[in-house]
Amino acid sequence: MIVVLLQTVVTAQCGIGWKATVEKYTDGIYLTHQIFENNTDKDYEIVLNHGMKYAIYLLNPSKSIPSFKLIGDNELPFKDFEAKFNREKNYAAFIFTANESGKYRVALDFGTKEKACVLFVLNFISKKKKK
């Protein structure tokens, strides 16, 4: 019982005040959020559209997260990929343009076997440029 309670507390920590955190640290139009945990083998899927600019934010982590992987089913490419880390404020942002439309699998590597979580936020930044 105590173990379950401790796991719930760790996971809840990442989602506490999520709306205020999203408003404070993100740009663009909010699309979705999810709590990512390192104790599951589950990848998450997001659908992105060709030529659209997106931002993925990792906020409110319970532990430091040394790496992030964005994997497409067919290694879908990105254009203009930019990563921003702010260790002081404890968040990361990944800004990119989808070069192809499709499903992208998202995975995180926390670099620890200890229970950890993070708030994952996907925002829409801009539409593709008209030709």
Number of helices: 2
Kindly report how far apart the N and C termini lie. Answer: 60 Å
Q: Report the C-alpha radius of gyration, rounded.
A: 15 Å
As a percent range, the share of helical residues equals: 10-25%
Name the helix and strand elements from N-terminus to C-terminus, one letter apiece: HHEEEEEEEE
Could you tell me the number of beta strands? 8
CATH architecture: Sandwich
Low-confidence stretches: 1-11
Number of domains: 1
Average pLDDT confidence is 78
Notable traits:
131 residues; alpha+beta; Immunoglobulin-like; five-stranded antiparallel β-sheet; three-stranded antiparallel β-sheet; 2 helices; 17% helix; 47% strand; globular; disordered N terminus
Task: Write structural notes for this entry.
The chain is an alpha+beta fold. It has a single domain, classed as Sandwich (Immunoglobulin-like), CATH 2.60.40. Helix content is 17%, strand content 47%. The chain is built from two helices and eight strands. It has helices at residues 2-15, 18-25; strands at residues 29-37, 44-48, 53-59, 67-72, 78-86, 91-98, 102-109, 117-126. The strands form two sheets. Strands 1-8-3-6-5 form a five-stranded antiparallel beta sheet, with helices on one face. A three-stranded antiparallel beta sheet has the order 2-7-4, with no helix packed on it. Strand 5 and strand 6 (91-98) form a beta hairpin. The longest helix has 14 residues, at 2-15. The protein is globular and about 35 Å long. The model is unreliable at 1-11 (pLDDT under 50).
